[in-house]
Recover the amino acids of this structure.
C-alpha cells in the first residue's frame, strides 16, 4: 500500500511539476501528513527535489515546490543503427542530459566489433552526463526483430545479424572497456520502431493520446501500435511489420520474398531509386529533404509516390485497428511536408465507413531521436511507475 | 473476497466439469471447507448442480460430481440479418437449448416492423426453451456499426438503418407483444462480426487460443480481433473493418467511396458476379457451396479469386497485429474448402519476415451460428465471470 502511494505521489509530480505538498495531497486524495511522509521518503531516495517556495493562492505558509530530482537516477540509452551508433543519458523526467552519436558502417560487421564501439560510446556519454546522474538501467534500440527470450536479437537483416545475444555480448565489452558499473546494469533490448512509438507516448506532443500508430523508417519501415497507453506486441512479439503489408499484390519483388510490399514504395532504397539517386554516402533523409525543399521534380514525385503508398497501407491499418491517431515519426518526420499530402489523400479516400479527420495524422517532433530517447526513457518510466524498486527503505 | 472465490469455483467447474468438490479444492487452492460452503451457495443460487457420485481414484467417500446447472440462468440471443431473423436460448454452459429462425427480407424495412417480428420470435424461442431456463439477459447481433452510446446502431447500410435505438425499440415491441419479462431484461447490442469472434473464443474449437483474428462475411466482411482473450474494439469502437482494407489500390469502385476494397473481391455481390450468377433469391453461401462441390468452373474461379484477395488482406493484418491464428468463420466457413487454398498461398508468400504456418489458418466449426451464439453466450459468460451478481445472498 505504501509502495503504491509512493508511486501515486511520484506520478502526480512527474505529470504536473512543480507542485507543492498541498497540491499533491489535493490531487492524490491522500492526507497532507501522508503526503509529507511519502515525499520525505522520495526525497531521501533521490527521486524528488525541492525547488523552493511555490506560488500559492491560499492563505498560510506556501509549500516548497516539488519536482522530479534532476540529479536522481537516470536512464542510459544505446542505439545500434545500420550507419551509426548513438547513446544518451536522460534524467528522471526523460530530458536528455548527454548525447553522443558516431557514424559507423555496421552492415555485415561482426557484432562483437559493433558492440565494442558501443561500449566505448556508453563510457563517453556517462562521463559527459557527470557523476550526479547515475544510470539505473540500460535500454538498447536495434533495427531488427527481438525475441521473447531475454536480450536476443532474432534477426536484423540490414546488419546481417541473426540470433545475436546482444545484452550478454555488450556486458562483456563493457567489462573489457573497464566499465563494470555499466556492465552490471539491468538491461533491455527492443526494436527501434517499438521504442520510437514508446518515446512518442512518453515524451512526444501526442503523449496524452494513448491509442495511436507510430510509423517510422530507419533500416526498414516499422509501426508501433500503442493501445490504451501500452505497446501492443502481438501474440508472438512481431506486431507492427508495416513495411511488408502488401500495397499492390503484383507490385515489385521485395527482398522478403513477397511482392508489392510497402517497402518497395516508401522504403529508403525504393524512394532513392524513384528519385534517381542511389547511395551517395550521405544520409538519405537529409538528402531527400534538401532536394525536395529545392523543388527537385524527381524527388517530389518519389516522395508523393511514397506518401501515397504509406497512405494506402495505413488506411488498411486504420480500418483494421481503429487508432485515435497516426503519427509519422523517425526519418519520415523530416520528410513530413512531402509525405503527408499523399497520405491524407489516401486516408480520406479509403477510411470511409467510420469517421476520419485529416488532423488525426500528425508528424512527430521527436523524429529520429525517438528510438534512442525511448530506450533511455524506458528505464526512468519504470522507476516512476514503481519507485519502490529504488526508494523503499 | 467471497465474491471472487465464488467466481473461482464456478469457473473451475465451467472449464472442466464434471468435478468433485475435492477436485475443485485441489484446482483452486481453496480449502475443502471453503469450497463446500461456496458450492452450497452456488447450488442455492441455481448456478451449480450435482450429477451424483463422481469417479474417484482416491480412497474414501467419492464426492458428488458438480456441473453447471443445465436449468440455471440462461442467455437469450437475437440476430437481425439482412434476410433473416433468429433467436436462441443457451444454458449456463453456452449450449443452445432452443433455436428459432425465420426468413425475412429486412432490406429497407422500417426498424419497428423488423423489431416487432423479432419480439414475436423471442417469445416463441423462450416458450420452446421452457420455464426451467430463465433468461438473465438479452444479446442482440446486428449487421452494422454499434455506437458507444448504449444500444444505438449507428449504421447498418444493408438494412438502411441509421441511428436506430435498437434496444429501446425492441423493449417497446416486447411489451406490446405481451412479454414484459423479456422487455425488462438487461440487454446489449453488438456487431455480428464481433459476436462471431467472441463465440469462437468462448465456444469454438479454438477457444483455448486467446489471440486470433476471426473473419466472417454476413452483410459485409468483418473481422473480430481477439487479443489476450478479449475483443479488441479500437480507440473508437470501429476496429475490424477488414472489408474495406485495400487489396488493389486502383481496383473496382466500392460502395464505400473507395476503390479496390476487399469487399470488391470477396464480398457476396462480388463473388456472385464473378461466378456469373446474381441474386437468385437463394442463400448465396449454400448456392456457391453446391455449385463449387459440383465442379462449376466459374464458381471455382470466383472462390479462388475471393480466397486470394482474402489472403492478401489477411497477410497485411498478420504482419501488422501478429495474431496466433486466423479463423475463417461465418458464411465463409461453409466455403472453406475453396477459399482456404488461395488464402494459404497468399499468407505463405506474404508473411515472410516472421514465422507462419499453414495450420495457423483454420475454419470455424460454428460458422454462421456464431453471431447468434455469441449474443446469447455473452449473457451467461458475464454470470460465470461474476456469479455474485446472481448468487450472492
Amino acid at each position: 500500500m505504501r509502495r503504491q502511494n509512493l508511486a501515486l505521489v511520484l506520478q502526480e509530480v512527474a505529470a504536473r511539476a512543480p507542485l507543492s505538498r498541498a497540491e499533491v495531497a489535493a490531487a492524490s486524495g491522500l492526507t497532507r501528513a501522508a503526503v509529507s511522509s511519502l515525499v520525505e521518503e522520495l526525497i531521501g531516495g533521490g527521486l524528488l527535489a525541492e525547488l523552493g517556495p511555490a506560488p500559492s493562492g491560499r492563505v498560510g505558509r506556501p509549500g516548497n515546490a516539488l519536482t522530479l530530482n534532476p540529479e536522481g537516477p537516470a536512464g542510459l540509452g544505446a542505439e545500434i543503427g545500420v550507419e551509426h551508433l548513438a547513446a544518451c543519458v536522460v534524467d528522471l523526467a526523460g530530458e536528455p542530459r548527454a548525447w553522443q552519436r558516431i557514424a559507423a558502417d555496421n552492415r555485415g560487421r561482426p557484432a562483437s566489433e559493433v558492440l565494442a564501439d558501443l561500449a566505448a560510446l556508453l563510457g563517453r556519454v556517462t562521463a559527459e552526463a557527470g557523476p550526479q546522474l547515475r544510470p539505473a538501467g540500460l535500454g538498447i534500440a536495434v533495427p531488427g526483430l527481438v525475441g521473447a527470450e531475454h536480450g536476443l536479437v532474432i534477426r536484423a537483416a540490414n546488419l546481417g545479424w541473426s540470433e545475436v545475444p546482444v545484452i550478454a555480448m555488450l556486458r562483456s565489452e563493457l567489462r573489457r572497456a573497464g566499465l563494470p558499473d555499466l556492465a552490471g546494469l539491468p538491461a533491455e533490448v527492443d526494436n527501434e520502431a517499438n521504442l520510437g512509438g514508446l518515446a512518442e507516448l512518453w515524451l512526444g506532443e501526442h503523449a496524452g493520446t494513448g491509442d495511436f500508430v507510430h510509423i517510422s523508417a530507419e533500416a526498414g519501415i516499422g509501426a508501433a501500435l500503442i493501445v490504451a497507453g501500452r505497446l501492443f506486441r502481438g501474440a508472438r512479439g512481431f506486431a507492427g511489420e508495416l513495411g511488408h503489408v502488401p500495397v499492390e499484390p503484383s507490385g515489385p519483388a521485395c527482398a522478403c520474398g513477397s511482392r508489392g510490399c510497402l517497402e518497395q514504395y516508401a522504403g529508403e532504397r525504393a524512394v532513392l531509386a524513384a528519385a534517381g539517386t542511389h547511395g551517395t554516402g550521405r544520409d538519405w533523409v537529409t538528402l531527400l529533404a534538401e532536394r525536395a525543399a529545392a523543388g527537385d521534380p524527381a524527388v517530389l514525385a518519389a516522395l508523393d509516390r511514397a506518401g501515397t503508398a504509406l497512405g494506402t497501407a495505413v488506411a488498411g491499418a486504420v480500418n483494421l485497428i481503429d487508432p485515435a491517431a497516426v503519427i509519422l515519426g523517425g526519418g519520415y518526420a523530416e520528410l513530413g511536408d512531402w509525405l503527408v499530402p499523399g497520405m491524407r489523400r489516401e486516408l480520406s479516400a479509403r477510411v470511409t465507413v467510420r469517421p476520419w479527420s485529416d488532423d488525426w495524422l500528425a508528424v512527430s517532433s521527436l523524429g529520429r531521436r525517438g528510438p534512442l530517447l525511448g530506450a533511455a526513457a524506458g528505464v526512468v518510466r519504470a522507476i516512476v511507475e514503481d519507485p519502490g524498486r529504488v526508494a523503499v527503505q
Notes: Residues 198 and 374 of chain A are 6 Å apart (CA to CA). Chain A touches chain B through 46 residues (CB under 8 Å). Chain A has a mean pLDDT of 92.
